[in-house]
Amino acid sequence: MDRRWYFTLAAVAVALVAAITGGWALRHLAGQDPAERPGPDVWAVDPCAGPDLEAHVVRAEEPADRTADIDDGGGAVPIEPNDLPTAAPSEPNLTVPAAEPPAGPAPVGPTVLQDEPPVNLIHIFLVDSAMRPIPGFIALERVAGDPNVEPSAFFSIPEPAFQPSGGLLGVACDESGLLGRRFIWRKDAKSPELTVVLEGGAAIFGRVLGTDRRPVAGARVTLQTLMLDNRWRGEGGSPYATISDEEGNFHLDGVFVGPRVRCVAFLGTLSGQSRSLDLTPDGVAAAGDILLAGRAAGSGIIRGRLTDERDLPLIGQTITVRVERVTQEMVTDAEGGYTLTDMPTDRPVAVTIEVPTYGTWSRTTTADDFACDFQLVPQGWGALGQEAPPLFAATWFNRAPIALKDLRGRVVLLTFRDFRMDGDAGLATIRSLLADFGGRGLVVIAVYNHLSGGGSVAQDLVTTHITGLFEGAPIAGILDADPVLVADLMPPGRPPGVAAGATHWLYQVHERPASFLIDKKGIVRYLTPNENNLREWIVELLEE
Question: pTM surpassing 0.85?
Answer without folding.
Answer: no
